[in-house]
Amino acid sequence: MPPPRLLARSPDDFDSDLFDQTAVALELAPQENGVEHRAHQHRKGQLILALRGAVTCEVAEALWLVPPQHAVWIPGGIAHNCRATGNARIFFLFIEPGAAVMPDKCCTVAITPLVREMIRHVAGQDPAAPTDGSTARLIAVLLEQLSDAPIEQLHLPMSSHPKIRRISDTLIADPGDRTTLRQWADILAMSERSLARLVENATGLTFGRWRQQLHLMIALSQLAEGHSVQNVAGNLGYDSVNAFITMFKKALGKSPTQYFSSLL
Q1: Is 2 part of a structural domain of the chain?
Q2: 103 and 167: one domain?
Q3: Long-range contact list for 110-114, CB < 8 A, 24+ apart?
Q4: Among residues 241, 243, 233, 178, which one has the least CA distance to residue 211?
Q5: I need a labelling partner for 153 at 20 to 30 A (CA). Which of 3, 65, 70, 239 fits?
Q6: Which helix or strand (DSSP H or E) is residue 46 part of?
Q7: Would you call 105 helix, strand, or coil by DSSP?
Q8: Tell me, what's the pLDDT at 93?
Q9: Quick one: average pLDDT of 87-94?
Q10: Could you report the per-residue pLDDT of 36-85, keeping only the tens digit for each?
């Protein structure tokens, strides 16, 4: 009789170090969707895969988005917290350090159907299976395939600077906020030029590009959760749906409908 599928009550309640396999996988329990888990870290590297819906992961100085059929890679020892959309189906893959050729920094990777199905299969196996058995052989192929996964720039540079954090917290809470750089400078009691320099030095982006990237991240998350393009455009404060689609297409090369159709 096959072992029951592992379901994690939270991303940090499963000790992957208890097992000798080079990688172990499990699925996030559906009732944990929408819950923001406390910051935690693992000795093993962690791949977080979204089959449906989306998940956002915050690490120091950056916010990463995992749309459907993508995964975020978090190297071992990096503190992070995550939140999944209510309709999400999320899998975790914990990888032993050095077992796969993976980036040494956080990144979002596109997942092929082959890798997706292998992760789902491993999640249904006993993590204590023999290290020389069929599961171990499948894991070896999986890790080899992962090493070739294309990296995508689906992240938002963040900053711990209190003034930038105030802006980001405001925009995340109300993405439609259209306070200009000049207005923010007045609110924060500094010159517009000084604030522009502060944002660019901390994030590598101008204020306009940084806010647009934030809008893109929020748009992807809301679209993955099932919101219509029209609703998302309104939530982000765009004057028209066409203006929103133009921004989205300029950033990702496809309209929202085309982008999500390509992920099926």
Answers
A1: no
A2: no
A3: 110/69, 110/70, 110/149, 110/150, 110/152, 111/49, 111/69, 111/70, 111/71, 111/149, 112/145, 112/149, 114/145
A4: 178
A5: 239
A6: strand 45-52
A7: coil
A8: 94
A9: 89
A10: 667 788 889 999 998 888 888 888 888 887 888 888 999 999 988 888 88
Same domain? For 38 and 143 the reply is yes
Give the pLDDT confidence of 215-236 residue by residue, as tens digits: 998 898 899 888 999 999 999 9
Domain match, 48 and 146 both: yes
Distance CA(63)–CA(217), nearest Å, equals 9
Contact indicator for 168, 58 with CB cutoff of 8 Å: no
142 and 187 both lie in a single domain? no
Q: Identity (one letter) of the amino acid at 52? A: R
CB 71 within 8 A of CB 40: no
Burial class (CB in 10 A: 0-12, 13-18, 19+), 205: middle
pLDDT value at 204 more than 80? yes
